[in-house]
Amino acid sequence: MLKNNVAKLMASDGGERQNGCETYRETKRRRMVRRVGALAVSASMLAGLAGCGKMPTADELVGNTSGAAVSECPVPSAKNEDFTGTIRIAWQAIPNADLIVKDKGLLEACLPNATIQWSQFNSGGDVIQAFGSNSLDIGLAGSSPAVRAASAPLNLPVKVVWIHDIIGDAESLVARGGDYKSIKDLAGKNIAVPFGSTSHFSLLSALHNAGMNETSVNLINLDPDKMSAAWTRGEIDAAWVWDPVLSTLKADGGTIVTSSAATAVTGSATYDMELATDAFIKSNPEVMETWTAVENYAVGLISSKEADSAESISTILGNSVADVKKQFKGYTYPQAKDQSDIFHGQLPGIFKDTAEFLKTQGSLDKVSDDYSNVLYTDAIDQVAKQ
Fold first, then answer.
1. Helix, strand, coil fractions of the chain, as percent rounded to 5
2. Phi and psi for 151 in degrees, rounded to 5?
3. Where is the SsuA/THI5-like domain (predicted)?
């Protein structure tokens, strides 16, 4: 059943289409702002932004978190001028609609009186840690970190509020040199992966499916931004990681051995998701609806304005538009109408299956009877009707 559900989700066409544009001149202006800001920041500011796994960007250093490329809310019905508080948001360098929202300043345009604080994190494990220290209101994490957050011993007061993407070939095991036909050929080799991430979950699943375990290889906990250097120095033989690092390693003599698309077919589907704290959701249901409507709009841009969307994402990731377009093919981007069905349908079961596997790996203490209570669907359901 899970295999069939995953296949159905991977075939999703992405739903409704929306419109949006960005000028070349504005893109160049934002790039210049980022470069100048990076040079101007002081060492003390850098140290302050480096805590809890955050990676400061030039946008953050100059106080320009989004580029503010639009002046009007692209979803007029979702505009909220009443909220005047602060929203602390975690983002990751993953080519999905969240980066479009950030680059174009869509959330700032739809919440004009809010203070939006964007902070970059290396992996879902770091994001979960920040939720645990009450440093975030909303943030991106993979499905396996989300399950860990919702299960014992963590039991964090957070809910899953959105699916950014269904992960396919975008997360893969890439090996350095050699003639590797399967993961079995990597027995005894050094494999890098960010612990607690969806890639870590997929790697453990692949080892399990091959009759191996984590002791069959030498697992190295490494953030994506450190993998290229370790790869060049010959310190690692392989890595399970996502773009843009995945593409970099492939270009530097790497060969794909297997991927998260393959482990999804065998019953271990993975997603990039958005989590929000119970406290923030309870206090700001209207803001959650605005946030969801804006993300849903940005997802539509990927299909209706692919080149423009890729340009937005490339300004943040620092790679080419052509590379981003290729990376799009490694994901499925469901819109709100699809997500409403997923949240109310197979997602609780997928979460439970994920939890049961993580328990066998010693990553959590107990599997909950029902994971539907960690899914917040009010905003998705409302946006899906529009």
1. 50, 15, 35
2. -115, 165
3. 123-289
Residue 130 tokens read as 């920040």
Q: Chain centroid to CA 269: how far?
A: 14
For the chain, list the strands marked E by DSSP: 86-91, 115-120, 138-142, 158-167, 171-176, 190-193, 218-221, 238-242, 254-259, 271-277, 331-332
User: Of the candidates 329, 261, 94, which has an alpha carbon nearest to the alpha carbon of residue 194?
Assistant: 94
* Cα 252 from Cα 234, distance rounded (Å): 12
**What is the per-residue pLDDT for 63?**
36
Predicted confidence (pLDDT) at residue 51 exceeds the cutoff of 70:
no
- Which of 222, 244, 201, 196 is CA-nearest to residue 94? 244
As a whole number of angstroms, the distance between CA 92 and CA 272 comes to: 10
Report which of 193, 199, 254 is spatially closest to residue 227, judged by C-alpha positions. 193
Look up residue 183 and give its DSSP letter: G
Query: Rounded CA gap, 200 and 7, in Å?
Result: 21
**For the chain, what percent of residues have pLDDT higher than 90?**
70
Residue 56 in tokens: 């400061």
β-strand partners of 258: 173
Residue 238 has pLDDT above 60, yes or no: yes
Measured CA to CA, the distance from residue 350 to residue 150 in angstroms comes to: 14
The pLDDT, as a whole number, for residue 217 is: 97
Go through 82-94 and write b for each residue having 16 or more CB atoms within 10 A of its CB, e for each that does not: ebeeebbbbbbbb
Q: For the chain, list the domains and their CATH numbers.
A: 67-166+270-384 (3.40.190.10), 171-266 (3.40.190.10)
pLDDT at 45: 32
User: From the DSSP assignment, how many helices (H) and strands (E) are in the chain?
Assistant: 19, 11
Non-local (6+) Cβ contacts of 29 within 8 A are none
Find the mean pLDDT for residues 107-129.
Answer: 95
What values do phi and psi take at 259, rounded to 5?
Answer: -145, 175
- Taking 50 as the threshold, does the pLDDT of residue 121 lie above it? yes
Residue 24: the pLDDT is 31
Dihedral (Cα; 158, 159, 163, 165), 10-degree rounding: 30
For residue range 279-319, list pLDDT tens digits in order: 999 999 999 999 999 999 999 999 999 999 999 999 999 98
| Residue 27 confidence (pLDDT) | 35
Using an 8 Å Cβ cutoff, are 114 and 85 in contact?
yes
